[in-house]
């Protein structure tokens, strides 16, 4: 596995983990014990997943542009 492939897999895994954190925060916020911190966790995790997705797309485009595949 090339370093580029490993990087892409790691970023995708990070996106999935961030989305799982968002779901966890949303589920906990919807319970009686939910607090504003659970909501903040959900919003922050969705924001992080979005940034990671943008980064992944830019990384793949840049590595194709410079000839790494």
How would you portray this structure in words?
This protein has one domain. The protein is 83% helix and 0% strand. The chain has helices at 3-29, 36-65. The radius of gyration is 16 Å and the shape is elongated. The termini are close together.
Average pLDDT, rounded to a whole number, is 95
Report the uncertain regions.
none
Q: What integer value in Å does the Rg equal?
A: 16 Å
Q: What is the total domain count?
A: 1
Strand content: under 5%
Distance between the termini: 11 Å
Structural class: mainly alpha
Number of helices: 2
User: Could you describe the largest sheet, including whether it forms a barrel?
Assistant: none
User: What is the element string, with H for helices and E for strands?
Assistant: HH
Helix content: over 70%
Give me a quick take on this structure:
By secondary structure, this protein is mostly helical. Helices cover 83% and strands 0% of the residues.
Which keywords apply here?
2 helices; 69 residues; mainly alpha
Please give the structural blueprint:
Layout: H1 3-29, H2 36-65
Helix pairs in contact: 1-2
């Amino acid at each position: 596995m090339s370093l580029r492939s490993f990087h892409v897999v790691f970023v995708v895994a990070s996106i999935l983990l961030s989305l799982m954190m968002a779901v966890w925060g949303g589920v906990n916020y919807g319970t009686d014990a939910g607090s504003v911190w659970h909501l903040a966790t959900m919003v922050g995790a969705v924001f992080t997943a979005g940034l990671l997705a943008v980064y992944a797309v830019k990384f793949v485009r840049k590595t194709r542009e410079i000839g790494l595949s």
